[in-house]
């Protein structure tokens, strides 16, 4: 093999995203609350960026006098500072107003009293609406333990047991007791551990620190239960058969009647198989709609953005004046040059986000008008590519526009992604959404004869009669996703003729 070193020229085509395009995509993807935080950050870091202060009482009078980020005056047309020119035309446009601003340079960012008060009000609202941290399972158990008069050694082991319990696992004890004791422990220590476990299991909620499901359920059965022996037998030996609805098999093995087994199974369903799960910290997002959908006087849907709290921005007049000042240094001019682009890019990105989000929302509403009028059963199959074609943008732009965005409709607040659903074709060639198929599937199961529930293949036939051609595996998949058990598990044995 011959090896050599040398220079070689090669022409390649590489696609790169400009920083301005990257910022535009980031701004488009942000929900309203995140955009507010981004604007606050930019206002703090970029002194050339100013927030237009509006007085609610005089907003109507001053609307024609104050330029916003949507309607800029001639002096506020797009400013793009480039390194390959002296930008004389752009900088000249910055000097057209009256020279009534201070001539001394101050690079500190100055917020108005109204702006400061708005920030304080916003922070106060956030603190007032913040959820307090709920009491954890471990804290709840430790508080009960502290009120008990028990041996110190037992209490220490009990605290160790409590520390291993996890609310996400239902509060079960998964760690063997011997693993909670020091190496080389004596039999007395294991006896203390058993005593400590009994103490923990006596705490609320009932069934906590159980080692398996049977133990958990048994502790919740009252000792004076009229069928204590029978229900104990079912818990200890037939939980799997109960889950699979194999009641005749249980009846043959135990001699109990089907009616008694069914009655006891209903009582078992009232017990809590995961007593510690109530202490799980659930995250409930604070949903703020980005789009409002309303009907006008003619009954037509109108889309508007809920962006009242997104401030209008402009480039500082003070820094415009500094560019023509005789004492403006090269360093100061370079500073302004760097900040002009950032400010203008942000303003343009916000405007582009507003326009794109409006167009995408209007296209979605046009496609899903029947869903909004009639309900979930009337939703139409819709792909993002269809909306992208309507709006005239790339499909990834639509994906970013609807990401984590919510719309307030007459049917409640819904995520924009809710309107995009797949589907299939009926025998007549019409498109039908999967949501419609799921609703029909639920309807068929609700109306079935519980003594002879419909198997998946029979559900396929019933759907076909309704004009929906669906594969059996699809029915099985959606049935499981909907939490609907199999036909054998849905059978009501009390209705079966003997």
TrEMBL record:
Biased composition (Basic and acidic residues): 71-95
GO biological process: DNA-templated transcription initiation
Gene: rpoN
Membrane spanning stretches: none
Name the UniProt record assigns to this protein: RNA polymerase sigma-54 factor
NCBIfam families: rpoN_sigma
Biased composition (Polar residues): 96-106
Gene Ontology CC: DNA-directed RNA polymerase complex
